[in-house]
Design goal:
heterodimer; A: 290 residues; 2 domains; globular; B: six-stranded antiparallel beta sheet
């Protein structure tokens, strides 16, 4: 299959790397976690991790396996309740809120292992992501009366925008379980976007994708982050360093549950401590499929 | 000599003055907002555009183009998928007195460069980011290019090259001018003349560099009218535009016939959704390349292989009945009552459903052109109740000169000339034709023009004959015809078509000119053979490994034996080998319309061809293949030469 558009490196004529300069302009904090502690029995998964995510940025969290990246995402969206620490979202403390309440505030996520209803169609899976925004009740909905019908059409129009953005028109009515992995990953992103999030947590969106699919996914994340229509702030956990360094405004590095560095991609690449964390091999940091 | 007859269709009068935009204004004036001119599926919904809206868009884009510097006679290159904006831009170019030059959407940068540069295009209208990237890559090498207009905003947010301009801005400027000077557009259109060049279409060029065939407004209009005389389209008809605009067949339907008949043109949502969209629209008229019909047959065969035993048996029985009926129809013989009854049953049980799934449930006329379709494919469509007709013609004659008539369809002919068209055979067997649709020549290539146009006759470079019923038989490109060991002449294209009737074979190159026997290089179909192998637990990691599996060799051998059936002994394929890759247009092995560039491919794989006639039994290949994402992978492989055992 021919790539429909150029690789994401060409997203701007100047090239992507300069975008990091814009980071300074993004001031307004959207999410801040402060001193998160999380232990599982004897395993200290997070040891006082603090992170601030500014409105409009792509903030990546990297680190070796078991560094606590996914645990951090789970704490942000409320799947885990950390033993200590505060989480503030849009200026409001959400540390005690349950996951669905946090979702209602605008935090959405994708999972490392795809979490979709594999027996349902792509469209139905995405519609499910829209559930939180449904206002009409069960009875009105079942009878499909005026307001319910109007609402359904509005939701469907919104979903179609997502389908158009992620270029999945051809699989609208396909059962998710029959799709190749790369497309399922895209559907997972579509489902997360259906929530109309302000903050999107992406847990290894490139894992298991081939080169072309990785480029597509990077392009979609940039579109979601930059297009006026979406402007979604993203927290990205990812192992593909090429992508992370290309599309992130800021990168935070975790190692054994501690944040050992934070900064622009350039700063992180030249940080000796970060290189050490990756098995002490400096090349390790630049693991990429390209 | 064969001359076209006249049908009952009452077409618009074509005067010397009539141009395509004049006809558009007339048609739009007739229907206004009462009729839908085109539809595009967007955000999951078919969105209609009425004739008035269509004409308004053309008006504003045309005035806008003029405002950004388009002058009469200037060339405008267009590249993109089939969408309303593409057609508006083309029509606006005509209205402003410009010449439209369409490029295939998947052209590589070098091809885009060649055509944009050679055609002296001043403006390039690109669909979106991918096309704009190509345009920006060549702009420094095309000094005449002064504007790049784009239309799909996706991914375009950070492009700031000074040449770039958005189509909506062009339209907005045009709208302003239209308000200021109400009559300007009408005057502009009225200044046009039928004898002016409307289109330069670069022919696919199975042999050498692309040649730009210049077609006038009159060429296009006359062709549309004459085809409509044979097979009138109704204004209530639907047509789906999904083949490249750079192909004459699509131009002919969307522009010429579309305006003549006033039917509705439907644009699919995405290239990937064409099949679904075709089914939703279920057009009455369809014009496609032979390759597309072959792909449809392949899709059916694959589904057949995949279904349950009961369904397979029902399908087999129905196809047997359908084929018998089709053969009787071709032979113009009466159908026995029993068979007629069985035919109705087969239609209800199988064909009705099948046609619906293929988007052919309402089709009245399906045309195939571009290359010869295999006889088995052709018979298949008549068996399932689709009225498929062959078309013969070339870009140089605006697409069509010969077509099958209703109830007069023969498998091995391409039919009779359309009205106002004379088709003859030159003393050395070349097909020549003469009609008001014959082109003006190749742009900036007088020698080529002189070769093609002699005494008003278009010399096609094809070999053929006219049979006792006045039907044209198209044999093959003259230079492709092979002389067999026994001295007889044979068409490799015909054999390749027969090979492709097997769902397992995607492409083939048949060799045999002045050789002791006929051989073939076969490209297996990766998807179908891959699935076949999976079901039989044959492990493989790549196309290269799969194609060299002994089981796959046996599979292809059987397919070759099938294709050989009924052929004279000298024409049968005696040896073949499976190539390590599929033929690809990006490697120059196929044209953009998927025709085999025989001379090039034979030259490229000379070592392999020699091995087919050697005694080694295999050939070692050490080369590299380039994937579409730019990676280049070295290939070291032994290709086995297989002798086809006689049965």
């Amino acid at each position: 299959m021919r790539r429909k558009r150029a690789g994401y490196e060409n997203a701007s004529p100047q090239g992507r790397r300069k975008s990091a300069r814009r980071a300074a302009a993004l001031k307004d904090p959207l999410l801040s976690v402060d001193g998160l502690y999380m232990t599982f029995g004897g395993v200290r998964a997070l040891q006082g991790v603090s992170l601030e995510v500014k409105r409009g940025e792509i903030c990546s969290v990297i680190g070796p396996n078991g560094a606590g990246k996914t645990v951090l995402l789970n704490c942000i969206n409320g799947l885990y309740r950390p033993q200590q620490g505060r989480t503030v979202f849009k200026g409001r403390e959400i540390s005690r809120l349950r996951p669905h309440r946090r979702a209602a505030l605008g935090i959405s996520r994708t999972f490392q292992k795809i979490e979709l209803f594999s027996g349902m169609t792509v469209l139905d899976n995405i519609r499910l992501g829209r559930h939180l925004h449904t206002r009409t009740g069960l009875l009105t909905g079942a009878a499909y009366l005026g307001p319910a019908a109007r609402e359904e059409i509005q939701h469907r129009a919104f979903i179609e925008e997502i389908i158009d953005l992620l270029e999945i028109q051809h699989i609208r009515d396909t059962i998710v379980g029959m799709l190749p992995y790369g497309l399922q990953k895209r559907v997972e992103l579509a489902r997360a976007l259906a929530l109309e999030p302000t903050l999107l947590l992406l847990d290894e969106p490139m894992a298991g994708l081939n080169l072309e699919e990785t480029e597509d996914m990077a392009r979609f994340i940039l579109d979601v982050n930059e297009e006026e229509r979406w402007k979604v702030t993203c927290v990205l956990v990812e192992h593909d360093m090429g992508v992370v360094m290309d599309i992130s405004h800021r990168v935070a590095v975790l190692n054994f549950g501690e944040k050992i560095a934070e900064g622009t991609p350039q700063e992180i690449q030249s940080n000796p401590e970060v290189a050490n964390a990756y098995l002490g091999e400096s090349e390790g940091l630049y693991v990429s499929r390209r | 000599m064969s001359r076209g007859g006249n049908g009952g269709f009452e077409p618009p009068q074509i005067t010397e003055d009539l141009t395509i935009p004049k006809l558009l204004l007339r048609t739009a004036g007739r229907y206004g907002d009462r009729k839908v001119a085109m539809r595009e599926k967007e955000f999951g919904v078919w969105r209609p555009i009425t004739w008035r809206e269509y004409a308004e868009h053309v008006r504003h884009v045309a005035l806008g183009l003029e405002a950004v510097g388009l002058e009469r006679g200037d060339k405008v290159a267009l590249i993109g998928h089939n969408r309303p904006e593409g057609l508006w831009a083309e029509m606006a170019t005509f209205a402003a007195g410009g010449v439209a030059v369409w490029l295939f959407q998947d052209c590589l940068i070098d091809e885009v460069h060649y055509i944009v540069d050679h055609s002296d295009a001043k403006i390039l209208i690109a669909e979106g980011q991918e096309e704009v990237d190509k345009a920006l890559a060549i702009k420094d090498r095309c000094p005449k290019l002064s504007r790049i207009i784009w239309d799909d905003a996706k991914g375009m947010r950070r492009y700031d090259d000074p040449l770039l301009l958005r189509l909506t801005e062009v339209e907005a400027r045009g709208r302003e001018i239209a308000q200021r000077e109400p009559g300007r557009f009408e005057t502009m259109v009225a200044n046009g003349h039928g004898d002016e060049i409307a289109l330069i279409l670069y022919t696919s060029g199975t042999t050498d560099v692309p040649k730009g065939a210049m077609l006038t407004h009159t060429n296009m209009l006359a062709m549309g009218r004459n085809l409509m005389r044979v097979d009138p389209c109704k204004e209530s008809d639907d047509f789906v535009s999904f083949l490249p605009f750079a192909w004459i067949g699509e131009q002919m339907m969307s522009l010429s016939c579309g305006l003549m008949a006033g039917f509705t043109i439907n644009f699919p949502e995405e290239p990937e959704t064409v099949k679904q969209n075709l089914r939703e629209i279920a057009p009455q008229v369809i014009f496609a390349s032979a390759r597309l019909y072959e792909e449809i047959v392949r899709a059916v065969q694959v589904r057949y292989l995949d279904s349950t035993r009961l369904k397979r048996k029902t399908y087999e029985a129905a196809i047997r009945i359908g084929t018998r009926l089709a053969n009787l129809k071709f032979a113009k013989q009466p159908v026995p009552l029993r068979l007629r009854f069985l035919g109705t049953a087969a239609d209800w049980l199988v064909f009705r459903k099948l046609r619906d799934h293929l988007g052919l449930s309402r089709v009245r006329n399906a045309y195939t052109g571009g290359a010869l379709i295999g006889p088995d494919h052709f018979r298949f469509f008549h068996a399932i109740g689709v009225n498929l007709k062959q078309i013969y013609g070339q870009t140089e004659i605006a697409g069509i000169s010969v077509v099958h008539r209703r109830d007069d369809i023969k498998v091995d002919t391409v039919g009779q000339p359309i009205p106002e068209t004379e088709v003859g055979i030159s003393p050395d067997g070349e097909i020549i034709s003469r009609s008001p649709s014959v082109f003006k020549g190749y742009y900036k290539q007088p020698e080529e023009t002189a070769r093609a146009l002699r005494d008003g006759w278009l010399h096609s470079g094809d070999t053929g004959l006219i049979d006792e019923d006045g039907h044209l038989v198209f044999f093959d490109r003259t230079k492709d015809i092979v002389v067999l060991a026994d001295g007889s002449r044979f068409s490799p294209m015909y054999l390749e078509g027969r090979l492709r009737f097997s769902p397992f074979i995607k492409d083939a190159l048949v060799v045999g000119d002045r050789r002791p026997f006929v051989t073939a290089i076969v490209c297996i179909d990766a998807t179908v053979v891959g699935k076949w192998a999976e079901e039989r637990a044959i492990a493989y990691t790549s196309y290269q490994e799969l194609c060299q599996k002994p089981e796959v060799h046996r599979l292809v051998e059987e397919a070759v034996r099938q294709a050989n059936r009924g052929l004279p002994k000298a024409a049968r394929i005696r040896r073949f080998l499976n190539l390590f890759k599929e033929f690809d247009a990006d490697d120059d092995e196929l044209t953009r319309t998927r025709k085999l560039r025989r001379a090039f491919v034979e030259e490229r794989y000379r070592q392999i061809v020699e091995a087919l006639y050697g005694e080694a039994g295999s050939v070692h290949v050490d080369t590299a293949i380039t994937y579409e994402d730019g990676r280049s992978v070295p290939i070291k492989i032994d290709l086995k030469v297989v002798d086809v055992a006689e049965t």
